[in-house]
Design a protein that fits this description.
Strand content: 35-45%
Mean pLDDT: 81
Oligomer: single chain
Number of strands: 24
Low-confidence stretches: 242-272
Largest sheet: 9 strands, mixed
Structural class: alpha+beta
Shape: flat
């Protein structure tokens, strides 16, 4: 850009009206002085119409013309039908109803009435069809107009130069209406293979400006939340005034939206490259930045665009979890120990076993321990049965006690082609009543927690084998009391 001697005003057009004016920065090279930077709305520039809307509106116009022609033809047939109905009386009363003239006239009226009524019906159906098409087009127009091009602004830069020079300028600024959220795809293939993690980003924007062939940098920084640390004020206690009414005030934060997508490829083909092959993660003291070298077009329609940031292979310890008292199926879980090196962010995750979608989960690194446990859903290849094998009640002759004996047997069959590790959970009841006595009689090697009544078995089951575990307990209580529930 050429700068003349003296004061110059440079104008940068096409700036989003949702700009944060405090964030405007000018990077410039040259021997001059920047006197001021200001943002102004551009009211003179007409707002460009969306070309798709123009095409759809032309289609609606043609359909309305077709609808008008169809209604005109239908109205003509309806007039003819009214004429026939109003002229049914035969003018010559001398004509006998058995005469040939009467028969020919009746046949003529019958045939023409049939033709007219069918024509009216045909054009009525055509009316319904055309109206349905017009409604669909209008809905699409309303959808597009909801994110139609908006008024833009101008950044004016005032520069003072001692002489005529040439300079380079770059404007940086922050706009509201653009966001991204992390989301993950986790894929399990087999117990001897690592988990594939795809780190994705859902990017959306409604700034009023389409981003065409733009290189993106996704950052975890949150400038809208402010940078000033809070102040801890004294905490005072006081007696409550029962006659005074107090009202609490609160605030709420914006919610982050999360979605996921599926991504797979057929065996025998080379896996396609994604944005993950062109992304670089940069970590500062307080944020992470993902720089993507590929150019993207993100329209200002507030619709999500999924971008794959990177892929990882995660070593995991696989095992099954089963609680047959609550659910008769086993759940496949994966325990990951090195997850904290991945710098994950909270987000939803799509769970896959092979190419089969198993549902969604949620990754929250803030509450995870040294080991992160991921659930991949139910496994139909592990069959579990929990059966009540004994339930008896005996009356005590001394101290007026009643004794219940309860026993269960749990069987697990592994239909997989390889051995599995299963964590099996069950429980016996607990009580806070001093006159109720509960005793665990049989646990077949389970780890027992007296506080919660939980029984835990860790079982290794070979391929095609069946394992069984037994548990039994007794409950004593006064005969004049009823315990509920006793069997679950």
């Amino acid at each position: 850009t050429t700068i003349n001697k003296g004061q110059n005003i440079l104008r940068f057009y096409g700036i989003s009206q949702y700009i944060n004016q405090s964030s405007i920065q000018l990077e410039a090279q040259g021997d001059y002085i920047i006197q001021s930077i200001a943002f102004k709305y551009d009211y003179l520039k007409p707002i460009a119409a969306n070309p798709r809307v123009k095409i759809l509106q032309d289609s609606v116009k043609l359909l309305n013309e077709l609808r008008g022609e169809n209604n005109a033809i239908k109205a003509a047939y309806e007039e003819e039908m009214a004429f026939i109905q109003n002229n049914r009386t035969i003018g010559n009363q001398q004509v006998n109803s058995q005469s040939d003239e009467f028969s020919k006239m009746a046949q003529l009226i019958r045939e023409r009435t049939k033709e007219v009524r069918l024509a009216i019906h045909k054009h009525l159906l055509k009316e319904f069809e055309v109206v349905a098409q017009i409604n669909k087009l209008n809905q699409q127009i309303n959808e597009i107009n909801g994110f139609a091009p908006q008024r833009t602004g101008i950044i004016e830069v005032t520069i003072l130069a001692e002489e005529k020079i040439t300079g380079n300028f770059k404007i940086n600024y922050l706009v509201n209406g653009a966001s991204w959220v992390p989301t993950y795809d986790l894929r399990f293939e087999d117990v001897d293979q690592p988990i594939e993690l795809k780190y994705n980003a859902k990017v959306r924007q409604n700034t009023g400006i389409d981003w065409k062939d733009a290189t993106l940098t996704l950052s975890t920084s949150t400038p809208k939340l402010g940078n000033t640390p809070p102040t801890l004020h004294p905490w005072s206690l006081f007696y409550q005034n029962h006659y005074a009414k107090r009202q609490a005030y609160g605030s709420y934060d914006d919610k982050m939206e999360k979605e996921t997508m599926d991504s797979s490829f057929e065996p025998g083909f080379t896996e396609a490259l994604t944005a993950a092959n062109f992304s670089t993660r940069l970590e500062t003291m307080i944020s992470q930045d993902f720089e993507i070298d590929l150019a993207y077009t993100i329209l200002s329609d507030n619709k999500e665009n999924l971008i794959n940031l990177r892929k990882e292979k995660l070593d995991a310890n696989y095992k099954y979890l089963a609680i047959p008292k609550l659910d008769k199926e086993a759940f496949l879980t994966a325990e990951i120990t090195d997850w904290y090196n991945l710098n994950l962010l909270p987000g939803t995750s799509n769970m896959f076993i092979g190419n089969t979608y198993m549902g969604q989960s949620y990754i929250n690194p803030g509450i995870a321990n040294d080991t992160m446990t991921l659930g991949f859903g139910r496994d139909k290849m592990v069959k579990i049965e929990r059966k009540l094998t004994n339930r008896s009640c005996k009356q005590g002759l001394i101290a007026g006690k009643q004794k219940h004996e309860i026993a269960y047997e749990i069987t697990v069959r592994n239909l997989h082609g390889n051995a599995i590790e299963l964590e099996l959970l069950d429980q016996i009841p607990i009580t806070t009543q001093k006159d109720i006595e509960i005793e665990l009689v049989t646990k077949t090697g389970a780890k027992f927690d007296e506080t919660t009544g939980r029984l835990t078995w860790m079982i290794n089951i070979d391929s095609g084998k069946t394992e069984s575990r037994k548990m039994a307990f007794t409950v004593k209580h006064p005969r004049n009391q009823t315990i509920n529930p006793l069997v679950m």
